[in-house]
Amino acid sequence: MKGWQEAWQEALYGPDGFYRSPTGPAGHFSTATHGGPGAVLGAALARLAADNRLTHVVDVGAGRGELLTHVYAAEPALRLTGVDVVARPPQLDEVVEWLTAPGGARLPAELDRLDGALVVAHEWLDVVPCPVAEVDDAGVLRHVLVDPASGEESLGDHLDGAELDWATTHWPTAAPGDRVEVGLPRDRAWADLVSRVDRGVVVAVDYGHRGGDRPTAGTLTAYRRGQQVAPVPDGSCDLTAHVAMDTLDHDELVDQRTALRGLGVDGRTPPVQLATSDPQAYLRALGSASAAAALVARGGFGDFLWAVKRVG
Fold first, then answer.
1. What span, in angstroms and rounded, lies between the C-alpha atoms of 143 and 6?
2. Domains defined along the chain, listed by start
3. Which residue intervals of the chain are DSSP H helices?
4. Could you count the other beta carbons within 10 Å of the beta carbon of residue 144?
5. What is the pTM of this model?
6. What is the pLDDT of residues 235-286, one digit of tens each?
7. Which residues cross the membrane (predicted)?
8. Using CA atoms, how far apart are residues 166 and 128, in angstroms rounded to an integer?
9. For strand 221-224 and strand 238-240, is the pairing parallel, antiparallel, or unpaired?
10. Which residues, listed in sequence order, are joined to residue 59 by a DSSP beta bridge?
């Protein structure tokens, strides 16, 4: 049996980890960075960079470069850098720079002293492994251990030190059976990322929660081939847990609907008169509006939270 943080790290980023598979995450599920929604999101991020007079976009947890490909299509003048655990994807446009990361919270040493950069961590922190704890029958918070092969769980040592302090401060609970995903490694990973920017804007985009609205059962789950499955840290599935977004160092914390509407994305359908005057333009606008609507939809991508930190 292993603590969830250790088992999770190995399952996603070990030598045979899920994120090192040839197909990558896109072989198992679609995210907001893919397809039509990805094109709209890429254009919105290009606008965010322009609004802040930033010339470099860095995507942390870039997958196979899908989001950066959309940013490039929207604004070819931007410098682009992708960061992920895999080597540079062969199909990626040569204008996109690439850094290979160790995985999880660890970032490449070369990612440093960023000036004039918009740094986007899109669904990165939810796959930064963290300890999982559960309140026992005596009301004590204890580490949850897991069998990497079967997913069977048991309770281990009491939570203590900085982990207990984090849980007590940000996710207090004493009801037997309640679970806590200790976000301290995510807070530290985010602080590390922010520290690498001399001047710019750093944005974390993720499914998350805030104080007063923590899920008592936790959120740890898994996905395989488009289906939600039981979380088993054997390398065969994605493992993810929502992020305590309010504990990240931030200047703004808003939902994606608010963030994207501020960048001109609202999902409204084009005027029907356009269908008569320019049918092709109408069909293009209709496709874009449909993609935008998906990005701001309640119960879906629109429920993402954006934590924004401005540096310098």
1. 12
2. 31-128+183-207+242-262+290-311 (3.40.50.150)
3. 4-13, 35-51, 66-74, 161-170, 184-195, 256-261, 273-277, 279-296
4. 21
5. 0.93
6. 999 999 999 999 999 999 999 999 999 999 976 766 666 556 655 754 665 5
7. none
8. 16
9. antiparallel
10. 82, 120
